[in-house]
Design a protein that fits this description.
Rossmann fold; about 35% helix; four-stranded mixed beta sheet
Amino acid sequence: MSAVSTAWRNAWDIDECVQYITERGFTRVTLQFPDELQVDAAAVAAELQTSCAAAGAAVQGYVLADTTYQSTAVDEVAALHVDAHCVVRLHSLAPAQPDPCLRP
């Protein structure tokens, strides 16, 4: 496991996302963040890749921003461009409380 704090991992639901990804054998995953959470996108992507690798899964992650069409929509078109197996949409229902929407 990496050096990030447990609280940070919990805030981003890292373990839940890793379990979802690895149980389904996904190897290409898009992570969709709203603009206000893009600041953590690279760190979340790196942590997910590291944690998936520790679980024995080689996962390639791609970071997406929310669509310009509708900020609550999953960007399936961008996910198709990288042939992603799923979209993990990380959004915030309240400040500093991301909640993943996992979609195959």
